[in-house]
Amino acid sequence: MYLNQFLFLAAFLFCVGVYGVLARKNGVLVLMSIELILNAVNINLVAFGLFRESVAGQVFALFVIAVAAAEVGVGLAIVILIYRNRQSIDLTEVDMMKG
Amino acid sequence: MLENAWLIPALPVLSFVLILFFGKRLPKGGHEIGVGAVAIAFVLAGVCAVQWVQRPADLEVKAKSEEHAAAPDSVTNANANAVAALEEKAPPESEGDHEKEDAEHEAESIRKPVVREVTWFDNGQARVKAGTHIDGLAVAMMFVVTLISLLVHVFSTSYMDGDRRYTHYFAALSLFTAGMLVMVTANNTLQLLVGWELMGVCSFMLIGHWWEEKNNSNAALKAFFTTRTGDVGLLIGIAILFFAAGQTFDIAQINAQALGGELSHGLLLAGAAALLCGVVGKSAQFPLHTWLPDAMAGPTPVSALIHAATMVVAGVYLVARLYGVFWSGFAIGDGGINAVALIGGTTVLIAAALAFIQSDIKKVLAYSTVSQLGYMVMALGVGAWTAGVFHLVTHAFFKGLLFLGAGSVSHAVHSFDMKKDMGGLREHMPTTFKTFLIGSLALAGIPPLAGFWSKDEILLGASSNGYPIFLVVGLLGAALTAAYMTRCVYLTFFGDYRGHGHPHESPPAITVPLMVLAGFSVVAGLVNVPGGEWFAKWTENETVLTAGVAHHSFSPVIALFGSAVGVIGIAAGYAYYWRNLGPHRLTQRSGPARTGYRILEEKYGLDRLYTDGVVGSIKGPIARAAYWFNQRVIDGVVNGVGVAARGLAGFVYDTVDQKGIDGLVNGAGMGAEDGGKVLRLMQTGRVQQYALFLFGAVVVLGGALVLFTTG
Question: Does the pTM exceed 0.90?
Answer without folding.
Answer: no
